[in-house]
Amino acid sequence: VAVAALADPGGQNAAERASFSNYGWWVDAAAPGQNVVSTFLDDGYAAWSGTSFAAPYVCGRIAALMTDKDMAVQDAVRELFDPNRGEHLPDLGVLLY
């Protein structure tokens, strides 16, 4: 599964690729990857950016679909990445946010 990172839209609903993210025909999905709030030692929380935050988001969506519908992983991936469902952008795949 190839995942791209989406930029933080700053309160707007426009999907945009993060400047550091790869893209291309081979990308399956894009997920939040810029200014993602996550846990951090000592301070509790911090904002981070990277495709390393977008990829687990996609994995979580796959796992949730598998649990909710009692599906096998390949069926959940097929349904989640179906280009006829949801929003899809060239070179970013299915948008998940």
Please write out the topology.
Layout: E1 3-6, E2 29-32, E3 36-40, E4 44-48, H1 51-69, H2 73-80, E5 88-89, E6 93-95
Parallel strand pairs: 1-2, 2-6
Antiparallel strand pairs: 3-4, 5-6
Helix pairs in contact: 1-2
Fold and architecture overview:
With 97 residues, the chain is α/β, with parallel strands linked by helices. 28% of the residues lie in helices and 24% in strands. A four-stranded mixed β-sheet has the order 1-2-6-5. A hairpin with a 3-residue loop joins strand 5 and strand 6. The two termini are 17 Å apart. The mean pLDDT is 90.
Describe, in short, the structure shown:
This protein is α/β, with parallel strands linked by helices and 97 residues long. It has helices at 51-69, 73-80; strands at 3-6, 29-32, 36-40, 44-48, 88-89, 93-95.
Low-confidence stretches: none
Largest beta-sheet characterization: 4 strands, mixed
Strand order, biggest sheet? Answer: 1-2-6-5
| Helix/sheet category | alpha/beta
E-strand count? 6
Large-scale geometry? globular
Helix-strand sequence: EEEEHHEE
